[in-house]
Amino acid sequence: MLKLIGGIIIIAASTLGGFIYAQSFINRVKELNEMERCIYQLQNEIVYTHTPLPEALTNVAIKAKDPIADIFNKTSQELESNIYDNVYEAFKNAFKGNNNLNLKNEDINLILDLSKSLGESDITGQINIFSLTMENLKKIIAQAEITMKKNVKMYRYLGFGIGAMIVIMLI
């Protein structure tokens, strides 16, 4: 009886581990889609309503979902209080301080590249920079969705499979 209970616990724990790891792929795609929506909104705030950057970032953060909202909110606060000299450093610090993100370094670097040029050029230049960023972000989202479709099912089954192997080896 004790072996049966132990085996069930092992299988349940390893299956849960597989589901948790698989969820990180799903969360990455959700966060990338939310980032895309936020960048569109930021573009509208800057290009069409000519909102100052800290205020535009605050407006985006209000409408965004966590943990992406935290990035924009922290960046806005740092720019308003003049902690950093440029937007890039503020965004970099906001990403560094947030451990809840499932984004990869390439995803973060894309946003940091955008932040290097925010407020550095005229409206036409800003439009070009936003369109380039959105084009690259769409490519990353497409790759992340393909990776998600491949890996989610595999890691869920792998978690169960590893637990079953451990139980069989112990019995």
- What's the helix count? 6
Could you tell me the number of beta strands?
A: 0
CATH architecture: Up-down Bundle
Helix/strand order, N-terminal first: HHHHHH
Tally the structural domains. 1
Give the overall shape: elongated
Q: Give the % helix.
A: over 70%
CATH class type:
Mainly Alpha
Output mean pLDDT: 86
Binned strand content: under 5%
User: Strand pairing plus helix content: what structural class?
Assistant: mainly alpha
User: In angstroms, what separates the terminal alpha carbons?
Assistant: 12 Å
Radius of gyration: 21 Å
Low-confidence stretches: none
CATH fold call: Receptor-associated Protein
How would a crystallographer describe the biggest sheet?
A: none
Keyword list:
0% strand; 83% helix; 6 helices; Receptor-associated Protein; 171 residues; mainly alpha
Describe this structure in words.
The protein is an all-alpha fold. It has a single domain, classed as Receptor-associated Protein (Up-down Bundle). Helices cover 83% and strands 0% of the residues. The longest helix is centred in the C-terminal third of the chain and has 48 residues. It starts with a helix and ends with a helix. The mean pLDDT is 86.
Short description:
The chain is mainly α and 171 residues long. 83% of the residues lie in helices and 0% in strands.
